[in-house]
Amino acid sequence: MSESENNEKDLSEFQIRNIRLLTHLLAHDAVTDEIVDAIRQTELEYFSMFDKYRLLEQKINIDEKTNLLKFKKDYLTNIVKTASRIYHGLECQLYHISFIRFDIDDFSVFNNRYGHDLGDRVLVEIADIIRGNSRPTDYVIRFGGEEFDVILPSTDIPGARMYLDKIFKAVRGLIIRHGDEGLSVTVSAGVSHIAYDLSDARLVINRRIDRDYEQMQACADDALYEAKQLGKDRYCIHESGNEARYREIRELYCKSK
């Protein structure tokens, strides 16, 4: 690729059109200060509009309170498609993805006893801990209320355990100041996992991955209920084939509430 082609790649199509227009006008000796000023003004307006669009797009996809991603059902599809492109042509290998659902323990206590302002501070502090201990490639999501989801690409269960140990250590060391009180916070988490054979061309079928994502969430949710039932402030790994036990755990936990 020539140097001129490389330079063109660094410019927007809008700028390239303006350059071609100026080149055409120069060739016909038709460039005036008014034309140059008009083109410069249109560029300023274009990039101002572009910046506003990017801010609007970010606002749509980012939770304002925690600055985490909002839930979208195509996150897993994006991860698998990206991995398929990266590893295309390599020897067949399994690509591991772990999924974690966090829940702040007894969050309603903070809201009811200390007010929603303190509850919001707790949300932000936990969100900051999770995001601060995550990689740029991880998807850190506010699922809703006091629940946070994390998708860990290229991560098996041992890797997920290492990640969780860091999160739990940081949360256990967190103290929320409220007047003269120092309040502690705990979280519980459930973990699920999937492994894809990236040589399988059917992976690009979005509906299949959408179903996988739903299943990963359901399995992590079952493991989360187990962590809650066992006393909270812990995480549990989902074990396949134990659907009846998970239903019983969920029923027992709901009855105890």
Task: Please outline what is shown here.
The protein has nine helices and eight strands. The chain has about 260 residues and is α/β, with parallel strands linked by helices.
What's the layout of helices and strands?
Layout: H1 3-9, H2 13-27, H3 33-61, E1 69-70, H4 75-86, E2 94-104, H5 107-114, H6 116-132, E3 139-144, E4 147-153, H7 157-172, E5 175-178, E6 181-184, E7 187-197, H8 206-229, E8 235-237, H9 243-256
Parallel strand pairs: 1-3, 7-8
Antiparallel strand pairs: 2-4, 2-7, 3-4, 5-6
Kindly list the characteristics that best describe this protein:
alpha/beta; six-stranded mixed sheet; about 260 residues; Alpha-Beta Plaits
Q: How many domains make up the coordinates?
A: 2
Radius of gyration: 25 Å
What is the third-level CATH name, the topology of the largest domain? Alpha-Beta Plaits
Total number of beta strands: 8
Alpha plus pi helix count: 9
Output the strand order for the largest sheet: 1-3-4-2-7-8
- CATH architecture heading of the largest domain: 2-Layer Sandwich
